[in-house]
């Protein structure tokens, strides 16, 4: 069989590269993506390897590019992505790239620092502008003078005190001025109130007021006003809301205390002249400086924008180049240096079919580097298990991912993916059979397939969407197969299509039909004798009383039939594994007993179903009429337990064919006899082979168990390496074989019953569709007139949402998971071990894709 049905044949190779040509050769292999390198320095610390300095330089360049990317995204500038992948630059080009990135980073940091300083100055000037405006309002609102007359002198002296416009009473004024205010009436004393002005974050203002009141014991006077427009924080660019405040106090002690409180609440204090003329002059100067700053800020932002736009055009390509350089040097760190320090030695796994392609890539790399010494690629003999490499395309990739999710196939083991392409959507469709629901699913999958280039280019990080898009071909096939099974079931949104006309006719007259709620059609009289050409007869759709009974029997039997055939196919697949690996003992003493056991018991039960369908009919006379048809389940139970069948009804026969009792007893005895063969034959033969070899460590062709070899033979003609492991203890071999046998025998019963999920989910899906039609859509269809049209539109929309949400999405997901279980457990357990490890080639495409995904996260 070709590589489609098995993993690629792999070879372990030794690669010799001249030091000058190593970079170019590894670059060509990275573009090719067909070589998996091994680490020849596993004990060497990552910081002690030869090319660690180059890797660090690449990390530094990546850091600078991430900084540029962050600034570009902050400004909302689109980054040009042509979708092309530039070649890895030569080592000498690293210096130019580093210089370019260094220049861009320094220029951008300088611009950002200047912009931040300008914004900080702009913020300070803006706050000062608001302070001058608001404090002017405060002073304008104050009462000009307060006159107090002194009774101690004959002449009147006038004293001027600033007082705010809230018309405080004399007690409040005395509290603010203190004892000195009482003495202010004496001659020669002129008492003034000091004040400070500033801005504070609006959310801190209530706590700020409480602290001032408590710390100064009420001997300060605070006025505040909100700044209506939000201000920009120069550090992070956030919009903040602030308020202007002015605090009046008397004395240096209170002044010191007020300033400390302002400092604690991170309030910004600004100088505010006392004289109105000085305030107006300062305000004019502030406005002039703000206008100049606006001009400089605009020019700075324009320059920054031009720098970022120029960088955005090349950023994606720069990222690709740097990641390629870093990947090359990281790979070179896996190599060994020879004693002359002029040659690099590597070991790698390569697919045999691509051996010539890899050699051509190495030659291209040598020519690019200008080296005169050609690279040498030699095959090595090894006992290691090679990695598993299954070639995929965009169609088979999703199916292969389903198999690999269970376990990566052992080297050269039969690959279930090609068969899964057919069996997976088919078994899904058996459970999901509906022409309408299948059409919705198929159209959705077809839309994703037609638009796959555009959808793939979007590169969204929505995980659910990525799952749907990755499985678009699976969804399309599941929809197509569901349409087919829907035609077989003659089911479209719980209704039937009468394409060819029913092959049943009504023998009752009109009055009988109108007077009776339930009437039964007789196959002898009302059936035409020929079946409906394709699928089920639409007459069963109106058979309200026994429709579910007929569908129940039909779907249960086809579930068992499909299940047994699927399991037999799985056992046959193990024959391909045994013959390929020349495991003669497993072929004779495992495969043959397993197949006989399955055929004589469960395939015989399937044959009984067909015999019953063929021999017994309602139109036949006894002993082959419908009344004489035996129960297959009871017959099978009696067969296994050696029970005597119950006496049949009159004029009926006990058995369906001549010699049935003898054949059933023989089949059961032979099937039971296969169990000790599966259990003991293989371990005993291995034990005998070891004794004959006098305990020499020499594997005998076909005489090692699967557990010993991991499913891989040491035959020279099947790949570049076979499993060569230490021999197991005989006790472990006996235990392993016992577990394997018990699992197979009991699993044959449980797995057959497990396929009944096909019947159960199919019935559940059909009944849910019928419930939605009966309880939702039929309500709208019964309405008449203009109002009926509106009601029908609303009801149809509700029915469509429920259909898509419940029957297509939820039921589809349920059927998908059940189908996945049938393949992983019931099918693959018969032949698939999945104990290998995946081939992970050195590929620039994979590295860049993973790097881009990590950057988005």
TrEMBL record:
One of its GO terms (cellular component) is plasma membrane. The chain crosses the membrane at residues 421-449, 469-489, 558-576, 591-611, 662-681, 758-781, 787-810. Pfam families: V_ATPase_I. Its main location: membrane. The keyword Methyltransferase does not apply. The keyword Metal-binding does not apply. Keywords: Coiled coil, Hydrogen ion transport, Ion transport, Membrane, Transmembrane, Transmembrane helix, Transport. Residues 712-722 have a biased composition (Gly residues). Residues 704-725 are annotated as: Disordered. Residues 51-128 form a coiled coil. GO terms for molecular function: ATPase binding; proton-transporting ATPase activity, rotational mechanism. It is found in: Membrane. GO terms for biological process: vacuolar acidification. InterPro entries: V-ATPase_116kDa_su, V-type_ATPase_116kDa_su_euka. It is a multi-pass membrane protein. Essential component of the vacuolar proton pump (V-ATPase), a multimeric enzyme that catalyzes the translocation of protons across the membranes. Required for assembly and activity of the V-ATPase. Belongs to the V-ATPase 116 kDa subunit family. This is V-type proton ATPase subunit a. The lineage of its organism: Eukaryota, Metazoa, Ecdysozoa, Arthropoda, Hexapoda. The gene is LOC108047147.
């Amino acid at each position: 069989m070709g590589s489609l049905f098995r993993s690629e044949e792999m070879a372990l190779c030794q690669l010799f590269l001249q030091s000058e040509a190593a970079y170019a050769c590894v670059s060509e292999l990275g573009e090719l993506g067909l070589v998996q390198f091994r680490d020849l320095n596993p004990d060497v610390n990552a910081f002690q390897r030869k090319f660690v300095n180059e890797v660090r330089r690449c990390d530094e360049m990546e850091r600078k590019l991430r900084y540029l990317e962050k600034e570009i995204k902050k400004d909302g500038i689109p980054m040009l992505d042509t979708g092309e992948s530039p070649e890895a630059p030569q080592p000498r080009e690293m210096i130019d790239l580093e210089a370019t990135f260094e220049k861009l980073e320094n220029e951008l940091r300088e611009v950002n620092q200047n912009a931040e300083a300008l914004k900080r100055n702009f913020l300070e000037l803006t706050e000062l502008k608001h302070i001058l405006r608001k404090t002017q309002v405060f002073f304008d609102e104050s009462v000009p003078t307060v006159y107090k007359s002194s009774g101690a002198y004959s002449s009147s002296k006038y004293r001027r005190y600033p007082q705010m416009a809230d018309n405080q009473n004399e007690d409040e004024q005395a509290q603010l001025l203190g004892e000195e205010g009482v003495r202010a009436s004496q001659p020669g004393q002129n008492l003034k109130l000091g004040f400070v002005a500033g801005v504070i974050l609006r959310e801190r203002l209530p706590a700020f007021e409480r602290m001032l009141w408590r710390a100064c014991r009420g001997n300060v006077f605070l006025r505040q006003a909100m700044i209506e427009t939000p201000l920009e924080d120069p550090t992070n660019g956030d919009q903040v809301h602030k308020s202007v405040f002015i605090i009046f106090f008397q004395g240096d002690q209170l002044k010191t205390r007020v300033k400390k409180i302002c400092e604690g609440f991170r309030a910004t204090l600004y100088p505010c002249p006392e004289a109105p003329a000085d305030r107006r002059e300062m305000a004019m100067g502030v406005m002039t400086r703000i206008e100049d700053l606006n001009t400089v800020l605009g020019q700075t932002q324009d320059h920054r924008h031009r720098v970022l736009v120029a960088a955005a055009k090349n950023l994606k390509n720069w990222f690709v180049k740097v990641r390629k350089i870093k990947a090359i040097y990281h790979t070179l760190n896996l190599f060994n240096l020879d004693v002359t320090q002029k040659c690099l030695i590597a070991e790698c796994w390569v697919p045999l079919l691509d051996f010539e392609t890899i050699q051509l890539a190495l030659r291209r790399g040598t020519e690019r580097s200008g080296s005169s010494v050609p690279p040498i690629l030699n095959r090595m003999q090894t006992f290691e298990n090679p990695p598993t490499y299954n070639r995929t395309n965009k169609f088979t990739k999703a199916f292969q991912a389903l198999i690999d999710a269970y376990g990566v196939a052992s080297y050269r083991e039969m690959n279930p993916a090609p068969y899964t392409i057919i069996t997976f959507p088919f078994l899904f469709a058996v459970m999901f059979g509906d022409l309408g629901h299948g059409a919705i699913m198929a159209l959705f999958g077809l839309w994703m397939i037609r638009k796959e280039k555009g959808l793939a280019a979007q590169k969204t990080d929505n995980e659910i969407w990525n799952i749907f898009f990755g499985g678009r071909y699976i969804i399309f096939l599941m929809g197509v197969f569901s349409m087919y099974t829907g035609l077989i079931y003659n089911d479209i949104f719980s209704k039937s299509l009468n394409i060819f006309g029913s092959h049943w006719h009504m023998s009752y007259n009109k009055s009988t039909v109108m007077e009776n709620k339930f009437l039964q059609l007789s196959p002898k009289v009302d059936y035409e004798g020929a079946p409906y050409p394709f699928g089920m007869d639409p007459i069963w759709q109106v058979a309200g009383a026994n429709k579910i009974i007929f569908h129940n029997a039909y779907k249960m039997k086809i579930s068992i039939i499909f299940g047994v055939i699927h399991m037999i196919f799985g056992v046959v697949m193990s024959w391909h594994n045994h013959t390929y690996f020349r495991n003669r003992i497993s072929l004779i003493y495992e495969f043959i007993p397993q197949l006989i056991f399955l055929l004589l018991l469960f395939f015989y039960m399937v044959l009984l179903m067909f015999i019953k369908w063929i021999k017994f009919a309602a139109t036949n006379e006894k002993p082959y009429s419908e009344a004489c048809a035996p129960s297959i389940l009871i017959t099978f139970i009696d067969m296994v337990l050696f029970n005597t069948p119950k006496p049949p009804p009159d004029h009926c026969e006990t058995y369906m064919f001549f010699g049935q009792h003898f054949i059933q007893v023989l089949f059961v005895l032979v099937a039971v006899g296969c169990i000790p063969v599966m259990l003991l034959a293989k371990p005993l033969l291995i034990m005998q082979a070891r004794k004959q070899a006098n305990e020499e460590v020499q594997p005998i062709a076909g005489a090692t168990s699967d557990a010993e070899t991991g499913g891989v033979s040491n035959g020279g003609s099947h790949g570049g390496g076979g499993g060569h492991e230490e021999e197991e203890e005989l006790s472990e071999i006996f235990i392993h074989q016992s577990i394997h046998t018990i699992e197979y025998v009991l699993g044959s019963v449980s797995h057959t019953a497990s396929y009944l999920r096909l019947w159960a989910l199919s019935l559940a899906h059909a009944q849910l569709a019928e419930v939605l039609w009966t309880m939702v859509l039929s309500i709208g269809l019964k309405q008449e007139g203009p109002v009926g049209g509106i009601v029908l539109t609303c009801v149809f929309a509700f029915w469509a949402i429920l259909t898509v949400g419940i029957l297509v999405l939820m039921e589809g997901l349920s059927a998908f998971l059940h189908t996945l279980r049938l393949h992983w457990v019931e099918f693959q357990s018969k032949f698939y071990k999945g104990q290998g490890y995946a081939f992970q080639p050195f590929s620039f495409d994979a590295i860049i894709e993973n790097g881009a995904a990590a950057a988005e996260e």
